[in-house]
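pinging the channel bc i need a second pair of eyes. not urgent but kinda urgent?? the chain im working w is below, pasted from the shared doc
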Amino acid sequence: MTSTATAAVLRGTNRPFELAEVTLDDPRPDEVLVRVVASGVCGTDLGVQAGHIPFPLPGVLGHEGAGVVEAVGSAVTSVQPGDHVLLTFTSCGVCRNCRSAHPAYCVEFLSRNLLGGERADGSSTLSENGTDLHGHFFAQSSFSNLVLADERGVTKVDPAADLSLLAPLGCGIQTGAGAVLNVLKPEPGSVLAVFGAGPVGLAAVMAAALSPATRIIVMDLVDSRLELARELGATDVVNSGNTDAVQALMELTGGQGVTHALETTGSVKVAETAASVLAPLGKLGLIGAPAAGSTMSLDVNFMLNGRQILGITEGDSNPQLFLPALVDLVQQGRFPLEKMITRYSFRDINEAAAAAKSGSVLKPVLHFEDLV
């Protein structure tokens, strides 16, 4: 038997989302049917809408879902009906990177999550009026009140946790926090510079505040975001629109440069600036994704002093371990996620998307109460 859901369908690039009735397949052996409570709106969703990411349309997006399990496939063992879960990316589970606990670097990551619009075997999970829709976005397509998700992208969480708050952990927040805690791993006395105070950058700030880093410097163009960065743990902020970022960072570090840096904006120019302020043995993590084919210039001799540049996807997270840890930190009040979130009814998805694009809202989260 199939299930009927209400989903926000994107008919084409630069088109609004349209709420429509869609049909979902029954769960296959490795799939989980989840009733969505909330879903974050991420820049990746907006990138598809704007035509910057070649996901096939028409289709259903959304990849930061949180909800309650309704049914499970015959081979699913990690969750059961009634469990509260977060949804995140999927992976093949058998390649070298998956088997070494780095599923975000699965060799099939792009096709299984971002670009395919269908299951790995080419079948569709969604249809509308008998015609297949593209879905399976990050193996969930959570802009729908019911979703079919891969078991590998489903993480069970504390049933007392507030799913309406936690949805963004599945992608953007996991990415920023994991970049600091899983990849850069600041040591005692470290100086971390975060370029960009959007949701990913601010998640990195909150994570850095839990680390031994003694200085956390945040750069952005918007004073209100810099003020929030201070509230979340930044020790210093720089408005790089009216201050030379390199000069400011060198002054703040006594001319030594930073031991760790994180670029979250997707600007090649900003990435080059971040690399130029690394101290010897310094590490730069690249999260922001510029247009395909973008390149950055580096002084090779400058890099020979042990400096490193690392590309980071999904915070190099092993979600079944990392997401419950983040949930615990949120519940303890040590990771104040609520300070970044603005809540919207799912029916107001276009308003939420517009607010995210304009920058007037940091992290919109859609709520599905009126569709229950």
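so DSSP finds twelve helices and 18 strands in the chain. and Residues 172-184 form the longest helix (13 residues). — does that match what u expected or am i reading it wrong
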